[in-house]
Amino acid sequence: MRTPPFPPPQVGYRWYDSHNVAPAFEFGLGLSYTTFSYSDVQVSKSGVSFTLKNTGSRDGAATPQLYLGFPASAGEPPKQLKGGRKYFFFSSCGRSCFCGDIFSFFSPSPLMQ
Q1: 83 φ/ψ sector (left φ>0, alpha ψ -120 to 50, else beta)
Q2: Which of these CATH numbers, 3.30.70.120, 3.40.228.10, 3.10.580.10, 2.60.40.10, describes 13-19+33-104?
Q3: In the structure, what pLDDT confidence band is assigned to residue 112 with cuts at 50, 70 and 90?
Q4: Cα–Cα distance, 104 to 53 (Å, whole number)
Q5: Would you list the domain boundaries of the chain?
């Protein structure tokens, strides 16, 4: 018995992105009383690393989100959320961050056909 391939789901940000519609409120949008900076962004085969720093005068949290675009031949939505994590910082503090295993996408296994 062969299992038919299923297209990736078109819900949430994937639907908005696929139909070129700007959402009223972006994913993760929230009120913050501080500011953050990103620097030292490096991309490798194992993932993406960067430095995140609280540049404001108050303690706060940031949730960096990493979106990747795949070639049209992959049959994936224009962009996919591949990494995201919440970090808490004291004022004027920062740290190195890493998002790994980001270059994979769903492909039906030949063993399932």
Answers
A1: beta
A2: 2.60.40.10
A3: very low
A4: 28
A5: 13-19+33-104
